[in-house]
C-alpha cells in the first residue's frame, strides 16, 4: 500500500526535557520520523519544549514550536497550523498522554486532525491497567495476579489478598515513576500514595511479585496489512525486580530456548494485533525458569528506550520505519539487505550486544544506591562484540567510570568474602563488580545465583574472566606469554586494564600486542529498510571485513553515555560537526557508544564506529582510517580526557590544542594569563594536600568555592564557609586529588550575578552571538540555574566588557572552534570565573535563540575557514529566551532538592516569548509545574535572604495572593509593611506547613534553605512540595523572576510562535 495522499501536514509531538525514564532516545526517534516523512513529501509541524535537541533545530521540520507540552499550547498550535494528522507514538509517554488528552477533550475532532500510527482507543488498552488486564484475559494470555485501584485503602485490601511483597505500577507513566516493590503495609501506603499522584488518571496496579524471574523483552513492528516482525529479542541479565532501564541486558537472548522465544513471539503478536499499533511496540515478559510459567508484565505501544537499543543492536531503524508505516507504506515495500523485502526480516547477526546503565548516585547526598522497580539510570552504553565476554568488557570500559575492567573497583578487592556477600543483599549499581571480586575470593556460583537470582550461565562467564585474570596476574612485572595475551584480547581485556594487572604502562602492552600481530578487526552491522548502509564494531575474534577508502576524512569523537553534567547538548554539537564535515566535501567518521543518540544513527555520519571512547579503541580506528584530523572538543569532557594521550600517539587533533585545554584547567597558568590580560579574577589557588588547602584559605578568606580539576557538571564542587567544612571536603575528595589533578580553590563571591558567553573563535578573532544572564545568583551551577538571553539585569556596558574579555581570552589562548566563559558581576565589576575552550551545554540554546548555527560554523573554521568568511554580525531581536533546568528530585523523594555548585539537573526546557516575564512563565510551565496566577504563597526564608524578599512579597500581595509565612518571616514582613498569615513549622505543632500542602492550600512555595546554622532541618518543606506536586523556589532571585512571569500571565494568556517566525524577526 503506497503512502497516504489524504494527509499533507503532520504534527509530531516530542517528549520534552530529558528526565530519568525518558531520555535522548526520543530526540533520535523524532529526528528519524521528521527525516522519513519529509522525504515522503509531507510537511512537518514539530512541537517540543527541549532546546538541547537536534530535533528542535529549524532545519528538521517545516514549522518548529519550542513551547510547553500541554493542552493549551497544542490546541493553539493546531488552531494556527491546521495539521491533517497527528503522529503520537514517537515522543515517549509525554506525547502519548498529551495525544490522548487532546482526543478525549474533542480537540482533534474539532480541527479534523486524524491520528496515524495508533488507534488511541486501543492505546488505552495498553496504558490503562484495568483495560490491559481485560484485553489479556480475552486473548488467553496470563498476567501476574493483580488488581487496579484508585485509593490507598483499596491497595491495602488487594495486597492482603495477594500476599507481600507486591509491586505497585502507576498507569500512564514511564521509567517506573512513582512505583516500587513493597514488603509491608507501611511501605505500601507510601508507594501507593506516590503512584496514585504520579498517574495521569490516579490509578495504580497492585500486582503479585514475580521477583527473581527472568525478564525478557520483544520489540515488535506491525504494519497496516497486519504483517508483523520481531526486530529484537532482549534478555535482561538482572532478574525481575530491577527496572529494565537499570538492568544490564543482552541481545540476542543468550540463555533462552528457541521454543520459549517462539512462544513469546506468538503471544506478543497477539497482543500487538489486539492493541492495533502501526509501528514499533515493546512487550515485556517475566518467565519463571522453575515452573515454565510466563506472564506479560506490560507493553509500550510506542517507540521506547528499548526501541532505541533494539534499533542500534540490530541495524533496524524502528522510528524511521514506524513513521513510514504510519503514512501507509507497508513492510513488503521496504528493502531488506538479506534480499527481498522487510516483511521477511529475521533478527540475526553473529555478534552479541550488551547494554549497561550509567547512574548518578554520587550526585545526591543521602540517596541510597539501591536498584528497584523505579528507574534511576541517567544514561546507558551499548557495546558489540563477537562473544558475550568481549561485549561485556567493552561495555564496562565504555561507561567512563575510570574502570577498564571488572576487577579492582573501589575497595571491593580489599573486602573479605563475607563482606562482599553482605554487599549483595540487594541490587546496586556496583553489583557486577562485587560479584567479580566475590568470585575471585572463591564464592560458590550456586550461592551467588541464589543470592542475586542472576542466571548461572552469566556468572560462569564472569568466573572464566576471573580465572583468566588470576592467571595473568601471576606474570605481574614480567613478560606475559603471547598465547595468554592473545586469550586476554579474545575475551575483551583492554590494554589499560592488562597494564594495571601486570604493573606496566598501557603503551607497553599496546606495542607488544601490535608486534605480535594482535590487532582489532572490524565487522559491519547492515542496516535494514534502507539501501546499502551499515555501521561497524571491533573484535579480536574475527578477521577484518571492513574496507577503507582513500579519501579526505575527519573523525569526530562523541560524548559517550548521557550523564548529569554531560548530556544531549554535546551530542547536538557532534551531529552538527558530522553534517558540516560532509558539506565541506570530507567524509565524516563518528565514534560513540551511546545507543540513545542521533550521533549513533546510521546516516548521521558517512561511517559510524560503535565503540568505546578509550585511547586503545580510538587509536585502532585512527590507524585504520588515517583521517586528516580528529575533532575532540564537541563531546564534552569524554574526548578531552584522552586528547593529550591521543596527540602523544601521533593523532592530529584539529581545532583548539590539548595544551590550551590544559591551560584552562591549570589555575596557576590561567591566573598568570588573566593578570597579563588585566582581567579581574576572584582570588584562587591550587592545593595538592590539606596543608596547602588551609594555607590558601587563610590567604584569600572564606567563603570558598572548592572543586577537583578536570571535571564536568560541577562534579564534587562545594561552597565551604569555614575551616571545619574545608577539612571535611579535602578528606572526602582525597581519592580525586593528585599531583596532576589538584584541588581548585576560589574566593566565593556572595550574591554576585553570574553570566556566561559562548564564542566562535578562529585563533585570531572571536565572535560572541549573545551574553546569557543567570537568574539565580552565583553559587548555583550554570547547568541548574535558569538563564535568559538577552540579559535583563546586566548593563549594556557590562555586556560589552564581557564580550571584550571573551575576545581577548580567545585570541590569547589561540582557541579554534568553540569556547564558553563564565563570569560573575560583583559590586558592578566583571570577574572571570572560568574558561572552557570547548563546546558547552548552552551551544544549542544560543544557536536557537539567535539563529546562529554555532557548532556548524566552528567545524567549518576547524576545517580551515576564517571568522571573516562568515560576515557574522551581532543579532538584534526583541524576543526573550529563558532556559530552565529540569531536576530529578521527584524520582528521589528522600533527597533535599536544594541547588548548589554541583549540577543535578538531567535536562532543560526553553521558554520563548516577546517579554522576559512571559518567557519565564512558559519555561516554568514547560517543566510541568505551573506558576499559579492566584492562591496562597508560602514564604519561609533564611535570615541571610530576608533583605531580598520584601520586594517579592509586595509583588505577590499586589497581585491578590494570600501570603502564608512562618513566624520569623511573618514578623520581618510585618516590619516592612507586608501582612501575612502565620503557619507552624512541623516541630511547632499542627496544623502545620505539611498539612496545608497536603490539603491543597498552598499554590507556590518560596523557601531558601536555612543551612547548617539552623537548629531545625527545613528540608521537609522542599520534599513535601515535590511529593504534593507544588512548584517550589529556593532562591530569592528566582522568586523575583516568578513575580514577573505571573504578572505577565495574569495580563493575558500566551501566544505560540514557531522558531522560524522568531528567526524571521532577527536583524543581523
List keywords for this structure.
seven-stranded antiparallel β-sheet, alpha/beta, 1068 residues, eight-stranded antiparallel β-sheet
**Which residue ranges are poorly predicted, with pLDDT under 50 across at least 5 consecutive positions?**
none
- What is the mean pLDDT? 92
Count, helices: 36
What does the largest sheet look like?
8 strands, antiparallel
Q: Share of helix among residues?
A: 25-40%
Overall outline: globular
Q: Give the C-alpha Rg.
A: 28 Å
Distance between the termini: 48 Å
Number of strands: 39
Strand fraction = 15-25%
The helix/strand class is: alpha/beta
Q: What is the element layout, followed by pairings?
A:
Blueprint: E1 9-13, H1 25-39, E2 43-48, E3 63-66, H2 71-81, E4 85-87, H3 92-104, H4 107-110, E5 114-115, H5 120-127, H6 129-139, E6 146-149, H7 152-162, E7 166-170, E8 180-182, H8 185-198, E9 204-208, E10 214-222, E11 228-236, E12 249-251, H9 258-275, E13 279-287, E14 294-300, H10 305-314, H11 318-326, E15 352-358, E16 379-385, H12 388-398, H13 417-423, H14 431-440, H15 445-452, H16 456-473, H17 482-490, H18 495-502, H19 506-515, E17 521-526, E18 534-539, E19 553-557, H20 568-583, E20 587-592, E21 607-610, H21 615-625, E22 629-631, H22 637-648, H23 658-665, H24 667-677, E23 684-687, H25 690-700, E24 704-708, E25 718-720, H26 723-732, E26 743-747, E27 753-762, E28 766-767, E29 771-777, E30 787-789, H27 796-813, E31 816-826, E32 829-836, H28 843-850, H29 854-862, E33 880-886, E34 907-913, H30 916-926, E35 936-940, H31 950-958, E36 962-965, H32 967-975, E37 981-982, H33 993-998, E38 1004-1007, H34 1019-1027, E39 1031-1033, H35 1036-1051, H36 1059-1064
Parallel strand pairs: 1-2, 1-4, 2-3, 4-5, 19-20, 19-22, 20-21, 35-36, 35-38, 36-37, 38-39
Antiparallel strand pairs: 6-9, 7-8, 7-9, 10-11, 10-13, 11-12, 12-15, 13-14, 15-16, 17-18, 23-26, 24-25, 24-26, 27-28, 27-29, 27-31, 29-30, 30-33, 31-32, 33-34
Helix pairs in contact: 1-11, 5-6, 7-8, 13-14, 14-16, 15-16, 16-17, 18-19, 20-29, 25-26, 30-35, 31-35
Amino acid at each position: 500500500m503506497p503512502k497516504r495522499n489524504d494527509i499533507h501536514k503532520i504534527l509530531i509531538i516530542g517528549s520534552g526535557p530529558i528526565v530519568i525514564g525518558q531520555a535522548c532516545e526520543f530526540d533520535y526517534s523524532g529526528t528519524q520520523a521528521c527525516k522519513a516523512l519529509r522525504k515522503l513529501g509531507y510537511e512537518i509541524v514539530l512541537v517540543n519544549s527541549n532546546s538541547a535537541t537536534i530535533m528542535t533545530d529549524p532545519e528538521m521540520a517545516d514549522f518548529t514550536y519550542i513551547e510547553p507540552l500541554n493542552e493549551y499550547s497544542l490546541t493553539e498550535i493546531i488552531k494556527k497550523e491546521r495539521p491533517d494528522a497527528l503522529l503520537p507514538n514517537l515522543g515517549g509517554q509525554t506525547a502519548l498522554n498529551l495525544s490522548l488528552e487532546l482526543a478525549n477533550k474533542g480537540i482533534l475532532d474539532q480541527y479534523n486532525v486524524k491520528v496515524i500510527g495508533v488507534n488511541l482507543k486501543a492505546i488505552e488498552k495498553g496504558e490503562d491497567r484495568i483495560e490491559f488486564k481485560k484485553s489479556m484475559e480475552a486473548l488467553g494470555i496470563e498476567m501476574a495476579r493483580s488488581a487496579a485501584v484508585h485509593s490507598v485503602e483499596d491497595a491495602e485490601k488487594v495486597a492482603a489478598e495477594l500476599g507481600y511483597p507486591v509491586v505497585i505500577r502507576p498507569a500512564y507513566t514511564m521509567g517506573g515513576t512513582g512505583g516500587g516493590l513493597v514488603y509491608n503495609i507501611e511501605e505500601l501506603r507510601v508507594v501507593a500514595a506516590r503512584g496514585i499522584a504520579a498517574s495521569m488518571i490516579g490509578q495504580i496496579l497492585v500486582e503479585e511479585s514475580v521477583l527473581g524471574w527472568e525478564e525478557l523483552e520483544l520489540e515488535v513492528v506491525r504494519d497496516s496489512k497486519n504483517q508483523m516482525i520481531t526486530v529484537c529479542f532482549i534478555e535482561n541479565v538482572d532478574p525481575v525486580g530491577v527496572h529494565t532501564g537499570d538492568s544490564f541486558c543482552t541481545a540476542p537472548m543468550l540463555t533462552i530456548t528457541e521454543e520459549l522465544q517462539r512462544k513469546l513471539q506468538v503471544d506478543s503478536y497477539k497482543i500487538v494485533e489486539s492493541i492495533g499499533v502501526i509501528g514499533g511496540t515493546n512487550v515485556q515478559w517475566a518467565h519463571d525458569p522453575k515452573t515454565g510459567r510466563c506472564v506479560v508484565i506490560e507493553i509500550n505501544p510506542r517507540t521506547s528506550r528499548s526501541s532505541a537499543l533494539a534499533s542500534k543492536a540490530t541495524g533496524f531503524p524502528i522510528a524511521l520505519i514506524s513513521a513510514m508505516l504510519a503514512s501507509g507504506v507497508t513492510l513488503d515495500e521496504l528493502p531488506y539487505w538479506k534480499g527481498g523485502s522487510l516483511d521477511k526480516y529475521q533478527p540475526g547477526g553473529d555478534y552479541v550486544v550488551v547494554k549497561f546503565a550509567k547512574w548518578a548516585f554520587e550526585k545526591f547526598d543521602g540517596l541510597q544506591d539501591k536498584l528497584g522497580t523505579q528507574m534511576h539510570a541517567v544514561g546507558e552504553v551499548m557495546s558489540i562484540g563477537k562473544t558475550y565476554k568481549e561485549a561485556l568488557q567493552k561495555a564496562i570500559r565504555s561507561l567512563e567510570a575510570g574502570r577498564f575492567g571488572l576487577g579492582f573497583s573501589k575497595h571491593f578487592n580489599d573486602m573479605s568474602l563475607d563482606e562482599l556477600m553482605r554487599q549483595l543483599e540487594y541490587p546496586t549499581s556496583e553489583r557486577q563488580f562485587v560479584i567479580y571480586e566475590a568470585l575471585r575470593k572463591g564464592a560458590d556460583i550456586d550461592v551467588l545465583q541464589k543470592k542475586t537470582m542472576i542466571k548461572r550461565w552469566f556468572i560462569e562467564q564472569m568466573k572464566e574472566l576471573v580465572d583468566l585474570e588470576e592467571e595473568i596476574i601471576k606474570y605481574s612485572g614480567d613478560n606475559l606469554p603471547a598465547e595468554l595475551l592473545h586469550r586476554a584480547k579474545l575475551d575483551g581485556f583492554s590494554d589499560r586494564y592488562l597494564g594495571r594487572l601486570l604493573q606496566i604502562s598501557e603503551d607497553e602492552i599496546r606495542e607488544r600486542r601490535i608486534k605480535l600481530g594482535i590487532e582489532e578487526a572490524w565487522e559491519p552491522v547492515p542496516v535494514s529498510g534502507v539501501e546499502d548502509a551499515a555501521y561497524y564494531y571491533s573484535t579480536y575474534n574475527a578477521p577484518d571485513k571492513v574496507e577503507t577508502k582513500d579519501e579526505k576524512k575527519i573523525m569526530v569523537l562523541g560524548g559517550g553515555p548521557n550523564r548529569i553534567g554531560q548530556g544531549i547538548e554535546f551530542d547536538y554539537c557532534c551531529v552538527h560537526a558530522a553534517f558540516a564535515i560532509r558539506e565541506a566535501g570530507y567524509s565524516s567518521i563518528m565514534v560513540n557508544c551511546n545507543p540513545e543518540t542521533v550521533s549513533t544513527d546510521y546516516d548521521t555520519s558517512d561511517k559510524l564506529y560503535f565503540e568505546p571512547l578509550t585511547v586503545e579503541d580510538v587509536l585502532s580506528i585512527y590507524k585504520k582510517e588515517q583521517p586528516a584530523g580528529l575533532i575532540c572538543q564537541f563531546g564534552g569532557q569524554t574526548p578531552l580526557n584522552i586528547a593529550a594521550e591521543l596527540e602523544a600517539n601521533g593523532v592530529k587533533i584539529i581545532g583548539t590544542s590539548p595544551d590550551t585545554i590544559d591551560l584552562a584547567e591549570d589555575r596557576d597558568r590561567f591566573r598568570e594569563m588573566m593578570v597579563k590580560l588585566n582581567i579581574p579574577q576572584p582570588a584562587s589557588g591550587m592545593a595538592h594536600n590539606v596543608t596547602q588547602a588551609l594555607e590558601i584559605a587563610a590567604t584569600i578568606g572564606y567563603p570558598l568555592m572548592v572543586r577537583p580539576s578536570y571535571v564536568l557538571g560541577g562534579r564534587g564542587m562545594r561552597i565551604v564557609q569555614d575551616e571545619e567544612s574545608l577539612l571535611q571536603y579535602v578528606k572526602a575528595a582525597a581519592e580525586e586529588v593528585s599531583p596532576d589533578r589538584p584541588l581548585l580553590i576560589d574566593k566565593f563571591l556572595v550574591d554576585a550575578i553570574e553570566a556566561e558567553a559562548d564564542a566562535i573563535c578562529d585563533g585570531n578573532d572571536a565572535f560572541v552571538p549573545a551574553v546569557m544572564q543567570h537568574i539565580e545568583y552565583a553559587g548555583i551551577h550554570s547547568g541548574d540555574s535558569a538563564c535568559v538571553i538577552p540579559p535583563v539585569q546586566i548593563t549594556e556596558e557590562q555586556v560589552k566588557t564581557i564580550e571584550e574579555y571573551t575576545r581577548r581570552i580567545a585570541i590569547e589562548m589561540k582557541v579554534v572552534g568553540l569556547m564558553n566563559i563564565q563570569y560573575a558581576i560583583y559590586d558592578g565589576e566583571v570577574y572571570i570565573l572560568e574558561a572552557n575552550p570547548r563546546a558547552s551545554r548552552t551551544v544549542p540554546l544560543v544557536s536557537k535563540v539567535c539563529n546562529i548555527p554555532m557548532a556548524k560554523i566552528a567545524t567549518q573554521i576547524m576545517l580551515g575557514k576564517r571568522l571573516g568568511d562568515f560576515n557574522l554580525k551581532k543579532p538584534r531581536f526583541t524576543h526573550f529566551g529563558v532556559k530552565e533546568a529540569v531536576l530529578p528530585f521527584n524520582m528521589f523523594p528522600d533527597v533535599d532538592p536544594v541547588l548548589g555548585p554541583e549540577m543535578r539537573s538531567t535536562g532543560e526546557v526553553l521558554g520563548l516569548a516577546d517579554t522576559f516575564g512571559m518567557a519565564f512563565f512558559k519555561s516554568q510551565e514547560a517543566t510541568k509545574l505551573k506558576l499559579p496566577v492566584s492562591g496562597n504563597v508560602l514564604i519561609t526564608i533564611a535570615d541571610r535572604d530576608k533583605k531580598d524578599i520584601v520586594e517579592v512579597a509586595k509583588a505577590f500581595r499586589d497581585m491578590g495572593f494570600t501570603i502564608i509565612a512562618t513566624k520569623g518571616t511573618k514578623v520581618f514582613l510585618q516590619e516592612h509593611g507586608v501582612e501575612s498569615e502565620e503557619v507552624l513549622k512541623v516541630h511547632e505543632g499542627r496544623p502545620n506547613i505539611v498539612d496545608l500542602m497536603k490539603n491543597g492550600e498552598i499554590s507556590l512555595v518560596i523557601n531558601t534553605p536555612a543551612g547548617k546554622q539552623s537548629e531545625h532541618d527545613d528540608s521537609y518543606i522542599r520534599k513535601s512540595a515535590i511529593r504534593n506536586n507544588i512548584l517550589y523556589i529556593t532562591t530569592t532571585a528566582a522568586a523575583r523572576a516568578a513575580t514577573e512571569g505571573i504578572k505577565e500571565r495574569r495580563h493575558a494568556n500566551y501566544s505560540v510562535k514557531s522558531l522560524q517566525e522568531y528567526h524571521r524577526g532577527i536583524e543581523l
